[in-house]
Design brief:
about 375 residues, Molybdopterin biosynthesis moea protein, domain 2, Hypothetical protein af1432, 3 domains, 14 helices, globular, binds fe (ii) ion
Length: about 375
């Protein structure tokens, strides 16, 4: 059975899926049927009708793991040309990391010391760039330029995790090791039957149970390698544990969960939620941030989530966006206090800069990919 929980209707955020019909508290009418994924329009309507009470939603972590499935069937393994605003050095490192990850996942054998060395080289290159400027790599991650989920996810989790680690004060080798853990965290998916990993749709309960075992297999593949230290191993083997103890594979809770695993968990959930899949559109950065924020109390590390949302450039400068007004534009800057509502230079109107922190009724509706 999919796990569900009951929440106040006022606490609903985009991305959550209703497990039961949402009923009008006064008339008893079904307002939104079970199975619907909540979006901004639903929230506006509920607000307009002042609907009160509680509703039942699916555990968002289940949604994330379902999104974890499917690596090959839905796509090949290519990378879209990156926008010209991204500098040559960053572009080269990103493409080289993608090639290294592709080689690792395609090799049908155990990762050896040489394999770890190659991945570490990629982790060092990414980390050094993030230490120099933490705003450049998230700008690529947001574009989801790699068309294969498993590869794209591994690279993006490494980028988000290393950037969050930098904002949390991690330095030098520790930061590089966290980045490496991000690149390797789902390597155990190689041991899950292809028909489950490649399934272009939500998993059944049984398939979901099998998919969960990827954490154990990741651990098994890495545990005997000399160059993988205990911190990296803990980060990888605990990345699906939850603060309230309801995660897996060891059912750890609270302080039992390694600090690096808490970092990976945030990066993992955020990337999974914001990626498009063949059967479901990914959430926009601000919607993904709301779901992550909504699951902090019992799943994720609250203090780290706050840093992630406050500091991370979830709409990096240079991102092209479409707005609810029908216009398109480019992110030019942010207010520190409201990073999810950036300032947009409107296309074709050089005199107009729209400040979304002031224009509260205008929303970003899509990220425009070149
Ligand atoms: Fe995972
Ligand atoms: Fe993952």
């Amino acid at each position: 059975m999919i796990k569900t929980f009951t929440i106040e209707i006022s606490k609903l955020v985009p991305g959550l899926v209703l497990a039961k019909d949402l009923i009008h508290d006064k008339t008893g009418a079904v307002l939104i049927p079970a199975g619907t994924q909540i979006n901004q329009q639903h929230l506006k309507r509920l607000h307009a009708f002042a609907v009160k009470g509680r509703c039942v939603v699916n555990d968002p972590q289940y949604l994330v793991l379902n999104r974890d499935a499917s690596g090959g069937a839905e796509a090949g393994a290519t990378i879209r040309p990156l926008p010209s605003t991204i500098n040559e050095q960053t572009r080269k490192i990103y493409i080289a990391t993608f090639e290294t990850i592709k080689k690792l996942f395609r090799k049908d054998q155990n990762i050896d010391e040489q394999g770890v060395k190659e991945i570490m080289e990629a982790a060092v290159n990414i980390s050094e760039e993030i230490i120099r400027d933490p705003y450049v790599f998230p700008q690529i991650a947001v574009l989801k330029a790699i068309d294969n989920y498993t590869y794209s996810h591994s690279v993006n989790v490494a980028i988000y995790a290393a950037t969050l680690a930098k904002f949390l004060g991690y330095k030098d080798q520790a930061l590089k090791d966290i980045c490496l853990a991000g690149l390797l965290h789902d390597i155990g998916k190689m041991d899950i039957p292809r028909e489950i990993v490649d399934k272009p749709g939500p998993l059944t309960h049984q398939e979901f149970m099998t998919m969960k075992k990827h954490v154990y297999y990741s651990y098994e593949r890495l545990k005997n390698l000399k160059s993988i230290n205990n911190n990296i191993l803990a980060a990888v083997s605990q990345h699906h544990e939850k603060i309230n103890g309801s995660g897996y594979f060891q059912n750890l809770a609270g302080v039992q969960i390694h600090d690096w695993a808490r970092i990976l968990a945030i990066a993992d959930v955020y990337d999974a939620l914001t990626t498009d899949r063949v059967y479901r559109e990914g959430l926009l950065p601000h919607e993904g941030a709301e779901v992550v924020m909504g699951s902090v109390l019992d799943h994720l590390d609250y203090e780290k989530v706050k840093v992630f949302i406050r500091q991370m450039s979830l709409y990096p400068v240079g991102t092209k966006v479409a707005l609810s007004t029908g216009e398109t534009g480019c992110v030019v800057s942010h207010h520190a206090a409201s990073p999810l509502r950036p300032i947009i230079q409107i296309d074709g109107r050089p005199d107009i800069r729209l400040d979304l922190s002031e224009e509260r009724t205008t929303f970003i509706t899509a990220i425009v990919k070149d």
